[in-house]
Amino acid sequence: MKSLLKFIQIHRSIKQHATRFSLVVVILLFGLFMEAYMHDFNLVYITLFFVFSLAFSSGPIGVLNIGNLEADFLRKIRLFAHQEGKIPISITNNSKTTSWSVSLHNDDTILPLAKLEGESSKILHFPVTPDKRGKFTYGNFYFESKYPLSTAHLSKNIAQRYEGFVYPEPKGKSLAAFLQEEEMPYGEEKEFDGLRAYDGSQRLSHIHWASVAKGEMAVKIFTQETHTPKLAFDFHHAGSNDEARLSQLCLWVLECEKKHLPFSIQMPGKKLNSSKESIDDILQILSTY
Q1: In whole angstroms, what is the distance from residue 44 CA to residue 234 CA?
Q2: Residue 52: what pLDDT?
Q3: Helices 279-287 and 242-259: crossing angle, nearest 10°?
Q4: Fewer Cβ atoms within 10 A, N terminus or C terminus of the chain?
Q5: Mapped to the 3 state alphabet, what secondary structure does 32-94 carry?
Q6: Any residues with CB less than 8 A from the CB of 63 and at least 6 apart, and which?
Q7: Residue 233 half-sphere exposure toward CB, CA atoms < 13 A
């Protein structure tokens, strides 16, 4: 009785739609019935009941194949505007039987799950490319399957939605270029570190004249030795408009995190400090500005 109630509960969560193979089965059953009625062949009766049994049993099998699957978003990840990120989703099979030929869908993306053993889980990484910064909600996920005979199109909605933040697109002038421009307060050239093409922004004193003599305009690169304990960025000096400033600051924050450099950001009305706030908290403030 409990198994029946559980099946009814699972069945209510599944949407079913007929496929073209459903019509094939109906035509086949009708043809076999007419053949059996007119000629009274035992072999036709056997075939008729065999096809009917397969068609009848495929419905419950398909429902149980997809009905015991659950999805859970594992953690918040760093998403950036106009850049592809991958949201980790854990798919769990709560049944003791293996689920076959299931795929995870969204409005415009499909990820095949293929086979999932009973009482096990698998992690899928769902690709997403946010088009703007700020609070981010992503939903409309559902499982889909035509198992076992493709006579029915079964789907199960996933109620959970991913909620997080999309940070500004990290782009702009590199931290090395910023340090080079701010050479007096932030450090001095330490070691020669190779050559790169001249793009018009470097100092004339850095031009590698031996390369110029060979017909190639190149400049010398030096590593910076930082003397100050903390880098100080200013919102109003970071770009020509708010979006450009936020993108530039986001890039510098990520580079400082990678190089383990302390920093502060003077925002309108408040000052952000890496020694008091986490990197994700600072990025979140930039994303919702």
Answers
A1: 84
A2: 72
A3: 170
A4: N
A5: HHHHHHHHCCHHHHHHHHHHHHHHHHHHHHHHHHHHCEEEEECCCCCEECCCCEEEEEEEEEC
A6: 7, 10, 11, 14, 16, 154
A7: 29
| Alpha-carbon distances of 121 from 17, 72, 106, 283, rounded to whole Å | 27, 10, 20, 32
pLDDT at 184: 47
Report the residue count for the chain: 289
Confidence (pLDDT) at 116: 92
**Which parts of the chain sit beneath pLDDT 50?**
184-192, 225-229
> Can you tell me which residue has the tokens 């049944």?
95
The CATH number assigned to the domain with range 1-167 reads 2.60.40.10
Is the sign of the CA dihedral 177, 180, 184, 188 positive or negative?
A: positive
pLDDT tens-digit series, residues 76-94? 899 999 999 999 999 999 9
Could you tell me the two tokens for 131?
């088009």
pLDDT at residue 71 in the model: 92
Tokens, residue 252: 């510098």
Q: What is the pLDDT of residue 139?
A: 87
Residue extent(s) of CATH 2.60.40.10 domains in the chain:
1-167
Its pTM stands at 0.73
* Helix or strand (DSSP H, E) at 204: none
**Tokens in use for 175?**
């931290």
